[in-house]
Amino acid sequence: MDPHRFRPELQPLETRETPSASPADVNFAMQFAQTSAGVLRQLQERLAGPLRTDTINEIKNFLPALAWLNAGAANLLGGFQTDLATEAALNPPAAPLLAPLVAWTGGGQVRAQATAAGADVLGVTLGAPSLGQQVAALTPPAPTADTASGQSTDQTSAAPADGSTPPAANPTPPTPGGTDPGTGTGSDTIPDVNDPHWQAMPDGLRVWDVVEGDSTAATAGSNVTVYYTGWLKSDGTQFETDRTSGPNTFSLAGLIQGWQEGIPGMKPGGLRRLDIPAALAYGTAGSPPKIPGNADLVFEIKMLAVN
Q: Of 67, 118, 175, 212, which has the fewest CB atoms closer than 10 Å, so is most exposed?
């Protein structure tokens, strides 16, 4: 692959505008996203076995670049998909011809997003800088206006009036998997089961949409790629999470009833919480040793991709 063909820009990935991409750029980004997904799977498999320290360090140093480049690819593909949708709206006769290309590009964008997220979490687990930290390192501090003098002051270098040495700046960059479910991969502690945002279903399942997401919604027959964490509702014990090992892909048809009912309608980028009664989970038998019988469960699910 030509290293000069595709370069993610250095502005923050969440806010930058994507310039129109050429077909060659889009094709390269699609190929890159597909190849990267396979590379990430191979790295995850390698890390599951015994490795030398220098090999682990090589993987740790590689993962931030993999996350960064896939985030850039997702951004480029998203911009191109928007351009196609705009063209279809302005030129209705061309819409049927553009629809397959819109879907193809959207699939590549979702794949790149999932790979970026997986590489980011795996890298952070090994001690590498997160994607958020990479963005923060490339974003200069914003100057603060001095309302009294009308001059701009950079607070990171301003000295106290008494001539003493200013304290060192200690910014806290965003990290995935923190307590902000809108920007990370989920919460560390069980959500408030008494929060008024819960919506009850007739069979006892409760749903709380924290972030809606966009693009194609999951249906009953979908395969979904997600991050998730589960807790015992009775005491808040966390019995399982994949936020440190990388996302998982499931067929909804093979999951517990609470997921089969609670996941459809979710869109990539969305985050949903499920409060699942035991009858829609593992019933009287439970799932030993972590889930006892008759256990109500609470899950938090971050949707990465719908296939």
A: 212
